[in-house]
Amino acid sequence: MHLHRRNRILRANPAIRSLVAETILNPADFIAPLFIDDGENQKFEIPSMPGYYRNSLNITVKEVKGLWNLGIKSVLLFIKCKDDEKDNTGKEALNPDGLMQRSIKAIKNAVPEMLVMTDVALDPYSTYGHDGIVKEGEILNDETVEALAKMSVSHAKAGADFVAPSDMMDGRIGAIRKALEENGFTKTGIMSYSAKYASCFYGPFRDALDSSPGFGDKKTYQMDFANRLEAIKETLMDVEEGADIVMVKPAMAYLDIIREVKNAVTVPVSAYHVSGEYAMIKAAAEKGWVNEDKAIIESLTAIKRAGADLIATYFAKQAVKLIAS
Ligand code: PBG
Fold first, then answer.
1. Helix, strand, or coil (residue 36)
2. Whose CA is closest to 210, among 103, 85, 61?
3. Mutual orientation of helices 316-324 and 292-306 as an angle, nearest 10°?
4. Using one digit for the tens of pLDDT, what is the confidence trace for 218-236?
5. Residue range 58-69: average pLDDT?
6. How far is 156 from 186, CA to CA, in rounded Å?
7. Over 90: is that where the pLDDT of 210 sits?
8. Quick check: CB of 35 below 6 Å from ligand 1?
9. Is the peptide bond prior to 250 cis by the omega test (within 30 degrees of 0)?
10. Alpha-carbon gap, residue 308 to 271, rounded angstroms
11. 166 CB less than 6 Å from ligand 1?
12. Does the pTM of the predicted model rise above 0.70?
């Protein structure tokens, strides 16, 4: 055979493969989600997320120092709210001495350069486990947006670098930006969960924070996974309303959406590799059915290749160690 072009030349050995690799993972690509609980020296493993923990604040601070030393530049905070602090309006979310506010301060104090992002949604604080205020079985939009704007200001006051609204109410990005401006927080960023689908893959997360909806589901606010154009519409609106970073969530089943969003906007795009995606890899690896390390790197590389500039993933620490080795 006399071939004019032999594509295997560029795949012949590890050196040439790494020379021509189009997508390379870096520690700074990752956002590490952290679950924080009350108490001291407490570490609770999440049954549906083997190897992942909900930690008390003092352990979280140590963890954040470790992440920074590994080259990870951002963390995304979630707290577990006590049952007796939950109500329908999520008032604990505004408590200046609440666990979230204390956590932001403690982390910024210990590792000032770490970018602290905070989840903004009412579900962990809600007796109904919904992302908004409930009235007669309905999730109220405008009343919820008002609460989210106050919550964002409260996080900014505590020192958050970015607020990350994950609720999918209409108009919240504009309202949050306005509230931040009015309160003088002109340096606080907004990472909007702009195309967030109503997904079964959030199950383990809801175990972690005890935040499952008490009735119904989240389909009246989170997006229908049948839809593609809606993701573009949502994302463009969020950019217009003032989002600094947009997000597609979940990631692996939505790589087409990540790419389309990436092509449609000029702001950075993040993707959330969610709890159920973590759980699936862990479970299959535990059974010996896939190689865990390889599944992690292949999945995260695919998410980046699809167009994600940033990836929120429970594998952040593991991935950084794998990249280095
Ligand atoms: C809260 C929130 C959820 C996740 C991130 N923020 C749960 C939900 O919307 O029900 C899911 C993250 C994950 O599954 O890893 N609004």
1. strand
2. 85
3. 100
4. 999 999 999 999 999 999 9
5. 98
6. 10
7. no
8. no
9. yes
10. 6
11. yes
12. yes
